[in-house]
Amino acid sequence: MKSTFIINNKIGRFFIYLIMVLGIVSVFAPLLIVLNVSLKSNEEYMMKGVMTLPENITNISNFIRAYVEGNFTRGFINTGLLVVVSVPVTVIIASLVAYTLSRFDFKCRKIVYLAFLIPTFIPGMTVTIATFQVIKALGLYNSILAGIILYIGTDIMQIYIFLQFISKVPISLDESAMLDGAGRLRIYTSIILPQLGPAIATTVILKLLGIYNDFFTPYMYMPKVKTVATGLYAFSGDKLAEWPLMSAAIVLVAIPTIIIYIFLQKYIISGVTDGAVK
Asked: Do 160 and 206 have their domain in common?
Protein backbone atom coordinates (compact mmCIF):
# COMPACT_ATOMS: atom_id res chain seq x y z
CA MET A 1 0.00 0.00 0.00
CA LYS A 2 2.83 2.35 0.86
CA SER A 3 4.61 1.76 -2.46
CA THR A 4 1.33 2.27 -4.35
CA PHE A 5 0.77 5.55 -2.52
CA ILE A 6 4.30 6.71 -3.40
CA ILE A 7 3.79 5.82 -7.07
CA ASN A 8 0.43 7.57 -7.19
CA ASN A 9 1.94 10.58 -5.43
CA LYS A 10 4.77 10.76 -7.98
CA ILE A 11 2.32 10.46 -10.88
CA GLY A 12 0.16 13.21 -9.39
CA ARG A 13 3.16 15.50 -8.92
CA PHE A 14 4.28 14.77 -12.48
CA PHE A 15 0.94 15.90 -13.89
CA ILE A 16 0.92 18.98 -11.67
CA TYR A 17 4.37 20.02 -12.91
CA LEU A 18 3.36 19.19 -16.47
CA ILE A 19 0.31 21.46 -16.22
CA MET A 20 2.46 24.22 -14.72
CA VAL A 21 5.01 23.94 -17.53
CA LEU A 22 2.27 23.99 -20.17
CA GLY A 23 0.77 27.06 -18.51
CA ILE A 24 4.12 28.87 -18.49
CA VAL A 25 4.74 27.99 -22.13
CA SER A 26 1.24 29.15 -23.15
CA VAL A 27 1.86 32.51 -21.47
CA PHE A 28 5.42 33.23 -22.58
CA ALA A 29 5.46 31.61 -26.03
CA PRO A 30 3.35 34.35 -27.70
CA LEU A 31 5.50 37.06 -26.09
CA LEU A 32 8.71 35.43 -27.26
CA ILE A 33 7.34 34.96 -30.78
CA VAL A 34 6.33 38.64 -30.99
CA LEU A 35 9.76 39.69 -29.69
CA ASN A 36 11.45 37.38 -32.20
CA VAL A 37 9.47 38.84 -35.12
CA SER A 38 10.09 42.42 -33.98
CA LEU A 39 13.86 41.95 -34.42
CA LYS A 40 13.55 40.97 -38.08
CA SER A 41 13.30 43.05 -41.21
CA ASN A 42 10.14 42.68 -43.25
CA GLU A 43 12.04 40.87 -46.01
CA GLU A 44 13.62 38.48 -43.51
CA TYR A 45 10.22 37.77 -41.99
CA MET A 46 8.65 37.07 -45.39
CA MET A 47 11.48 34.77 -46.45
CA LYS A 48 12.16 32.84 -43.23
CA GLY A 49 8.88 33.02 -41.33
CA VAL A 50 8.10 33.36 -37.63
CA MET A 51 10.05 30.65 -35.84
CA THR A 52 13.57 31.23 -37.17
CA LEU A 53 15.87 33.38 -35.08
CA PRO A 54 16.65 36.89 -36.37
CA GLU A 55 19.93 37.40 -38.18
CA ASN A 56 20.71 40.47 -36.08
CA ILE A 57 19.37 40.38 -32.51
CA THR A 58 20.46 43.99 -31.96
CA ASN A 59 18.24 45.29 -34.76
CA ILE A 60 16.14 48.05 -33.19
CA SER A 61 15.14 49.85 -36.38
CA ASN A 62 11.58 48.50 -36.10
CA PHE A 63 11.26 49.87 -32.57
CA ILE A 64 12.48 53.32 -33.59
CA ARG A 65 10.16 53.43 -36.58
CA ALA A 66 7.20 52.13 -34.56
CA TYR A 67 7.79 54.70 -31.80
CA VAL A 68 7.86 57.56 -34.31
CA GLU A 69 5.01 56.46 -36.57
CA GLY A 70 2.79 55.52 -33.63
CA ASN A 71 3.44 58.91 -32.00
CA PHE A 72 4.02 57.13 -28.71
CA THR A 73 5.52 60.22 -27.11
CA ARG A 74 2.13 61.91 -27.22
CA GLY A 75 0.47 58.60 -26.36
CA PHE A 76 2.51 58.12 -23.19
CA ILE A 77 1.95 61.75 -22.14
CA ASN A 78 -1.84 61.56 -22.58
CA THR A 79 -2.04 58.15 -20.92
CA GLY A 80 0.06 59.42 -18.04
CA LEU A 81 -2.25 62.41 -17.63
CA LEU A 82 -5.28 60.13 -17.55
CA VAL A 83 -3.62 57.98 -14.90
CA VAL A 84 -2.34 60.86 -12.74
CA VAL A 85 -5.76 62.54 -12.60
CA SER A 86 -8.13 59.58 -12.63
CA VAL A 87 -6.42 57.16 -10.24
CA PRO A 88 -6.17 59.44 -7.14
CA VAL A 89 -9.77 60.63 -7.57
CA THR A 90 -10.92 57.02 -7.91
CA VAL A 91 -9.11 56.05 -4.71
CA ILE A 92 -10.67 58.93 -2.78
CA ILE A 93 -14.21 58.27 -4.05
CA ALA A 94 -14.02 54.49 -3.57
CA SER A 95 -12.58 54.73 -0.06
CA LEU A 96 -15.14 57.37 0.98
CA VAL A 97 -18.00 55.25 -0.35
CA ALA A 98 -16.65 52.18 1.44
CA TYR A 99 -16.17 54.20 4.65
CA THR A 100 -19.76 55.45 4.44
CA LEU A 101 -21.22 52.00 3.79
CA SER A 102 -19.12 50.45 6.56
CA ARG A 103 -19.46 53.01 9.34
CA PHE A 104 -22.72 54.89 8.74
CA ASP A 105 -26.06 53.29 9.54
CA PHE A 106 -28.79 54.79 7.36
CA LYS A 107 -31.98 53.45 5.80
CA CYS A 108 -30.85 53.41 2.18
CA ARG A 109 -27.45 51.82 2.78
CA LYS A 110 -28.39 48.52 1.10
CA ILE A 111 -29.97 50.38 -1.79
CA VAL A 112 -26.78 52.39 -2.31
CA TYR A 113 -24.73 49.21 -2.21
CA LEU A 114 -27.03 47.60 -4.78
CA ALA A 115 -26.77 50.71 -6.94
CA PHE A 116 -23.06 49.98 -7.30
CA LEU A 117 -23.56 46.22 -7.60
CA ILE A 118 -26.31 46.03 -10.24
CA PRO A 119 -24.37 47.77 -13.06
CA THR A 120 -21.75 45.01 -12.91
CA PHE A 121 -24.38 42.62 -14.32
CA ILE A 122 -25.20 44.94 -17.24
CA PRO A 123 -22.97 44.53 -20.33
CA GLY A 124 -21.05 47.73 -20.91
CA MET A 125 -21.85 47.79 -24.62
CA THR A 126 -25.58 48.15 -23.91
CA VAL A 127 -25.08 51.60 -22.34
CA THR A 128 -22.50 52.85 -24.81
CA ILE A 129 -24.99 54.86 -26.87
CA ALA A 130 -26.43 56.57 -23.79
CA THR A 131 -22.96 57.30 -22.43
CA PHE A 132 -21.86 58.69 -25.78
CA GLN A 133 -24.87 61.02 -25.90
CA VAL A 134 -24.13 62.29 -22.40
CA ILE A 135 -20.47 62.95 -23.20
CA LYS A 136 -21.42 64.73 -26.43
CA ALA A 137 -24.11 66.82 -24.71
CA LEU A 138 -21.55 67.95 -22.14
CA GLY A 139 -19.29 69.11 -24.97
CA LEU A 140 -16.52 66.72 -23.94
CA TYR A 141 -16.32 64.61 -27.09
CA ASN A 142 -12.75 64.44 -28.41
CA SER A 143 -11.55 65.91 -25.13
CA ILE A 144 -9.29 64.20 -22.62
CA LEU A 145 -11.81 65.24 -19.95
CA ALA A 146 -14.19 62.65 -21.39
CA GLY A 147 -11.75 59.89 -20.54
CA ILE A 148 -11.04 61.33 -17.09
CA ILE A 149 -14.74 61.50 -16.19
CA LEU A 150 -15.37 57.96 -17.41
CA TYR A 151 -12.32 56.56 -15.64
CA ILE A 152 -13.06 58.13 -12.26
CA GLY A 153 -16.31 56.20 -12.12
CA THR A 154 -15.95 53.85 -9.16
CA ASP A 155 -16.95 50.21 -9.59
CA ILE A 156 -17.97 47.66 -6.98
CA MET A 157 -14.61 45.86 -7.10
CA GLN A 158 -12.76 48.87 -5.74
CA ILE A 159 -15.42 49.48 -3.10
CA TYR A 160 -15.34 45.81 -2.10
CA ILE A 161 -11.56 45.90 -1.63
CA PHE A 162 -11.80 48.93 0.64
CA LEU A 163 -14.77 47.48 2.54
CA GLN A 164 -12.79 44.37 3.44
CA PHE A 165 -9.95 46.41 4.92
CA ILE A 166 -12.16 48.96 6.70
CA SER A 167 -14.10 46.12 8.34
CA LYS A 168 -10.83 45.05 10.03
CA VAL A 169 -10.35 48.47 11.63
CA PRO A 170 -11.97 48.34 15.12
CA ILE A 171 -14.92 50.68 15.56
CA SER A 172 -13.55 51.44 19.03
CA LEU A 173 -10.87 53.58 17.35
CA ASP A 174 -13.61 55.72 15.80
CA GLU A 175 -15.35 56.02 19.16
CA SER A 176 -12.13 56.99 20.93
CA ALA A 177 -11.46 59.67 18.32
CA MET A 178 -15.01 61.02 18.71
CA LEU A 179 -14.47 61.32 22.47
CA ASP A 180 -11.41 63.43 21.71
CA GLY A 181 -13.54 65.71 19.54
CA ALA A 182 -12.65 64.35 16.10
CA GLY A 183 -15.27 64.58 13.36
CA ARG A 184 -16.07 61.98 10.73
CA LEU A 185 -13.75 63.53 8.15
CA ARG A 186 -10.88 63.67 10.67
CA ILE A 187 -11.48 60.01 11.56
CA TYR A 188 -11.38 59.09 7.87
CA THR A 189 -8.13 60.96 7.17
CA SER A 190 -6.30 60.17 10.42
CA ILE A 191 -7.48 56.65 11.29
CA ILE A 192 -9.15 54.89 8.36
CA LEU A 193 -7.01 56.05 5.44
CA PRO A 194 -3.62 55.11 6.98
CA GLN A 195 -4.94 51.55 7.48
CA LEU A 196 -5.80 51.16 3.79
CA GLY A 197 -2.26 51.01 2.42
CA PRO A 198 -2.51 47.56 0.76
CA ALA A 199 -6.01 48.29 -0.54
CA ILE A 200 -4.91 51.63 -2.00
CA ALA A 201 -1.89 49.99 -3.65
CA THR A 202 -4.11 47.31 -5.19
CA THR A 203 -6.68 49.80 -6.45
CA VAL A 204 -3.98 52.03 -7.91
CA ILE A 205 -2.32 49.14 -9.76
CA LEU A 206 -5.55 47.67 -11.14
CA LYS A 207 -6.85 51.08 -12.22
CA LEU A 208 -3.51 52.07 -13.73
CA LEU A 209 -3.30 48.88 -15.79
CA GLY A 210 -6.95 49.21 -16.79
CA ILE A 211 -6.45 52.75 -18.12
CA TYR A 212 -3.15 51.90 -19.77
CA ASN A 213 -4.56 48.90 -21.66
CA ASP A 214 -7.96 50.40 -22.50
CA PHE A 215 -8.58 50.92 -26.19
CA PHE A 216 -12.36 51.26 -26.35
CA THR A 217 -12.83 54.41 -24.24
CA PRO A 218 -10.22 56.58 -26.04
CA TYR A 219 -11.28 55.30 -29.46
CA MET A 220 -14.99 55.83 -28.79
CA TYR A 221 -15.09 59.08 -26.85
CA MET A 222 -11.86 60.90 -27.72
CA PRO A 223 -10.50 59.53 -31.03
CA LYS A 224 -8.33 62.60 -31.65
CA VAL A 225 -6.56 62.21 -28.30
CA LYS A 226 -3.69 59.80 -28.81
CA THR A 227 -3.08 57.21 -26.07
CA VAL A 228 -0.76 54.25 -25.83
CA ALA A 229 -3.50 51.77 -26.73
CA THR A 230 -4.82 53.75 -29.68
CA GLY A 231 -1.24 54.25 -30.88
CA LEU A 232 -1.28 50.63 -31.99
CA TYR A 233 -4.20 51.44 -34.27
CA ALA A 234 -1.79 53.44 -36.47
CA PHE A 235 -0.34 50.12 -37.63
CA SER A 236 -3.60 48.73 -38.98
CA GLY A 237 -4.75 48.99 -42.57
CA ASP A 238 -1.94 49.41 -45.09
CA LYS A 239 0.71 48.64 -42.45
CA LEU A 240 -0.93 45.38 -41.43
CA ALA A 241 1.37 43.41 -43.76
CA GLU A 242 4.43 44.70 -41.90
CA TRP A 243 4.32 42.27 -39.02
CA PRO A 244 7.81 43.07 -37.70
CA LEU A 245 6.77 46.72 -37.34
CA MET A 246 3.50 45.75 -35.67
CA SER A 247 5.34 43.35 -33.35
CA ALA A 248 7.80 46.09 -32.36
CA ALA A 249 4.88 48.40 -31.50
CA ILE A 250 3.28 45.65 -29.40
CA VAL A 251 6.54 45.11 -27.50
CA LEU A 252 6.87 48.86 -26.84
CA VAL A 253 3.37 48.96 -25.39
CA ALA A 254 3.76 45.75 -23.40
CA ILE A 255 7.09 46.53 -21.71
CA PRO A 256 5.72 49.04 -19.11
CA THR A 257 2.86 46.68 -18.23
CA ILE A 258 5.21 43.74 -17.73
CA ILE A 259 7.56 45.79 -15.56
CA ILE A 260 4.70 47.08 -13.41
CA TYR A 261 3.27 43.60 -12.91
CA ILE A 262 6.62 41.96 -12.12
CA PHE A 263 7.47 44.43 -9.35
CA LEU A 264 3.98 44.95 -7.94
CA GLN A 265 2.26 41.58 -8.39
CA LYS A 266 2.34 40.82 -4.66
CA TYR A 267 0.21 43.90 -3.96
CA ILE A 268 -2.34 42.85 -6.58
CA ILE A 269 -2.72 39.37 -5.11
CA SER A 270 -2.59 40.34 -1.43
CA GLY A 271 -4.85 43.34 -1.84
CA VAL A 272 -7.63 41.31 -3.46
CA THR A 273 -7.44 38.35 -1.06
CA ASP A 274 -6.00 39.68 2.19
CA GLY A 275 -9.12 41.49 3.34
CA ALA A 276 -11.38 38.53 2.63
CA VAL A 277 -9.06 35.96 4.24
CA LYS A 278 -8.20 37.85 7.42
From this structure: yes
